Amino acid sequence: MFTALLAFTGASGGLIRWATGFELAPLAMLTVMLGVILFLGCFMDQLSMMLLTAPIFFPLAKTLGFDLTWFGLIMLLALEIGYTTPPFGLLLFVMKGVAPPGTTMRDIYLAGMPFIACVLLLIALIIVFPPIATWLPAISH
């Protein structure tokens, strides 16, 4: 519904023109989009973030010349980080539920940081080496 509303009102095109008006390099714009996803991950669940950002980010990514398979994988990994991002990451509460008694939320937040770092490293590798994300789908062509 949100996507249809954006398309019907022309807001999608307006948002894309506004975002490209900053004349940032495509990788800088990708960094901004990742930052938005990571920020939203602190406060929203992943489905809501995806429904809110996908109708804006995917047309913008296409305008910037990104491979949409590559971009989609990066966005999914960024959404995955949201599961572990304090203070509302769903995985943090799952970890609290299975943690030994006396484990504080601070301990759990700190325990999640290496996983966040690993996914951020994976995103960086995919940005630097796009074939990591695109070689398997390219086989079917």
Give the integer mean of the pLDDT values.
Answer: 88
Count of DSSP strands: 0
* Sheet/helix structural class: mainly alpha
The amount of beta strand, in percent, is: under 5%
Q: What is the terminal separation in angstroms?
A: 32 Å
The amount of helix comes to over 70%
Spell the H/E element sequence. Answer: HHHHHHHH
Oligomeric status: single chain
Shape: globular
Structure explained in plain terms:
The chain has 141 residues and is mainly alpha-helical. Helices cover 77% and strands 0% of the residues. The chain is built from eight helices and no strands. It has helices spanning 2-9, 11-20, 26-41, 46-63, 68-82, 90-98, 105-128, 131-139. The longest helix is centred in the C-terminal third of the chain and has 24 residues, at 105-128. The radius of gyration is 17 Å and the shape is globular.
